[in-house]
């Protein structure tokens, strides 16, 4: 999610307070796939860290029973709840954080920190124009510096405005090279298709880590894994998702993507074992959708249908409540287990309007080809030059024979 480092900075100094470094952090893989020494970067056990985070949220909330909280305290609670939601796959947490931010702006409309908290909540649900307007307002109210600039860069990146994001990320990493700034630039370089530069930054970032919280490291390994998964390097991606999952066993996205890689590598039993508990407990329907697809591919039609129905109902509900944030994954579901290409195409179009990134164009082309809408596929191809991801080029190869336009 955009603005993630605004919250991670808070977690680094608080979620593992007074906890000894119990666990060596799994190191990111180097270009030769060899893990670094397991004695590096010892961190707090992930389960303990999550318990500490929960206790901190509850402690901060209890303070409200003794008197009004400050703007800073209320914004901090919203940030912590949002980060808990990100790691646990809890939509309720995101919605609670947004409600807290909205209440904060209502109560303190002239405090830039309140408006900044609302910008974070809006960006979480991909309401990017509103979030950027909030950032401008926060600056007019006197809030400046890394929190604003980091969130602005994250929004630009999520919208595909990579040059504008880089104009913020690169100077920040040069001026203050730490795990926060280097990892943020790494994810941007990855989105731009600059894989070698991104890998150097991903490898460098943990060397600047001086805390014991597992949260930033787990997030870093997850993002690095996403890059290699998109590049088709499944074994490398799987090792990184495994590292994130080991660091933080409750990290739903890491577990879900690890299952996706396991299934792609033919290890369906482990993929299903990883996905079943996620599909049962996580509010994010992506895990039920993945489970339905994998079970269907394995020939287990009855259970696949059950999880397909669960995912369909959840996506329908989320699209009604937060269409900008879930249009992409809902489109992916209807393209695969949902088996409704026309519905997928409508959602992919909606997603493309919100965030015209290479992956959004890729999803739209997948949907247009599946829906046999050659005219829309060709019109879209006419707008595009070379794109960074192998999977995107595969879509172009499928669509191009029916088009007059050739791609570079």
User: Helicity, in percent?
Assistant: over 70%
The beta-strand count equals 2
**Mean pLDDT across residues:** 88
Strands across the major sheet, in which order? 1-2
Q: What's the quick description here?
A:
The chain is mainly α and 408 residues long. It contains 21 helices and two strands. Strands 1-2 form a two-stranded antiparallel ribbon.
Topology summary:
Layout: H1 4-14, E1 23-24, E2 42-43, H2 46-63, H3 71-88, H4 91-107, H5 112-124, H6 128-140, H7 146-158, H8 162-175, H9 179-191, H10 195-204, H11 215-230, H12 234-247, H13 252-264, H14 268-281, H15 286-297, H16 301-321, H17 323-335, H18 341-354, H19 358-370, H20 374-381, H21 390-399
Antiparallel strand pairs: 1-2
Helix pairs in contact: 1-3, 2-3, 3-4, 3-5, 4-5, 5-6, 6-7, 7-8, 8-9, 9-10, 9-11, 10-11, 11-12, 11-13, 12-13, 13-14, 14-15, 15-16, 16-17, 17-18, 17-19, 18-19, 19-20, 19-21
Task: Describe what this molecule looks like in 3D.
This protein has 408 residues and is an all-alpha fold. The protein has 2 domains: 1-213, Serine Threonine Protein Phosphatase 5, Tetratricopeptide repeat; 279-408, Serine Threonine Protein Phosphatase 5, Tetratricopeptide repeat (Alpha Horseshoe), CATH 1.25.40. It is built from 21 helices and 2 strands. The chain has a two-stranded antiparallel ribbon with strand order 1-2. Helix 3 runs antiparallel to helix 4, helix 3 (71-88) runs parallel beside helix 5 (112-124) and helix 16 (301-321) packs antiparallel against helix 17 (323-335).
């Amino acid at each position: 999610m955009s603005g993630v480092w605004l919250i991670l900075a808070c977690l680094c100094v608080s979620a593992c307070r007074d906890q000894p470094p119990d666990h060596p952090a799994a190191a990111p893989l180097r270009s030769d796939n060899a893990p670094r020494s397991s004695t590096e970067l010892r961190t707090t056990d992930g389960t303990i860290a999550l318990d500490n985070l929960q206790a901190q949220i509850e402690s901060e909330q209890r303070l409200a029973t003794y008197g009004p909280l400050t703007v800073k305290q209320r914004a901090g609670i919203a940030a912590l709840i949002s980060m808990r939601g990100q790691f646990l796959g809890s939509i309720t947490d995101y919605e609670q954080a947004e409600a807290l931010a909205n209440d904060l702006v209502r109560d303190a409309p002239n405090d830039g920190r309140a408006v900044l908290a609302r910008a974070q909540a809006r960006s979480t649900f991909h309401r990017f124009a509103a979030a950027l307007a909030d950032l401008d307002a926060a600056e007019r109210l006197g809030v400046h510096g890394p929190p604003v600039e980091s969130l602005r860069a994250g929004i630009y990146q999520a919208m595909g405005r990579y040059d504008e994001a880089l104009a913020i990320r690169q100077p920040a990493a040069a001026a203050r090279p730490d795990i926060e700034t280097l990892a943020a630039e790494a994810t941007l370089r990855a989105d731009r298709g600059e894989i070698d530069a991104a890998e150097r930054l991903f490898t460098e970032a943990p060397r600047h880590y001086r805390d014991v919280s597992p949260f930033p490291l787990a997030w870093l390994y997850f993002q690095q894994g996403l890059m290699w998964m998109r590049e088709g390097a499944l074994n490398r991606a799987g090792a990184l998702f495994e590292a994130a999952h080991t660091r933080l066993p409750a990290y739903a996205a890491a577990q879900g993507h690890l299952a996706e890689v396991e299934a792609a590598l033919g290890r369906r039993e482990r993929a299903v074992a990883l996905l079943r508990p996620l599909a049962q407990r996580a509010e994010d329907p992506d895990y039920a959708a993945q489970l339905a697809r994998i079970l269907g591919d394995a020939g287990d039609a009855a259970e696949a249908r059950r999880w397909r129905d669960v995912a369909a109902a959840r996506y329908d509900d989320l699209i009604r409540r937060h269409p900008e944030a879930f249009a992409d994954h809902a489109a992916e579901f209807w393209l695969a287990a949902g088996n409704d290409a026309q519905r997928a195409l409508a959602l992919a179009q909606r997603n493309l309007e919100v965030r015209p990134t290479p992956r959004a164009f890729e999803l739209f082309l997948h949907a247009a080809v599946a829906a046999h809408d050659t005219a829309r596929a060709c019109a879209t191809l006419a707008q595009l030059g070379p794109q960074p991801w192998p999977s995107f080029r595969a879509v172009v190869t499928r669509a191009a024979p029916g088009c007059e336009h050739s791609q570079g």
